[in-house]
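quick one, 92 residues, struct below
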Amino acid sequence: MDPPRSSRAPLCQTLFVLQDNAPPVLPFDGCATRHHRLPYLDIPAEIQTEAGPAPDGALRLVATSRSAAVAPTAAGATAAAFAGLITALPSA
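---
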């Protein structure tokens, strides 16, 4: 078999994003606030996996996929594989 090839990856494109910035804080005297992360309207690849610090210091890992191109289970499997490889975030 010799299928025609393009410059794209044969299965899907995966983007891994490492956010090593501090979680956002909005201090108001006498009020409790928390950051609400909105979902992406679109992603530049079929699967995007983003890792970064959660407010409690834990690792936040989110996988987003284009469901028309990649099954959501594939995005979850990709996130699980990255989670198994990440041992610590770089210190800022």
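The longest helix spans residues 72-85.
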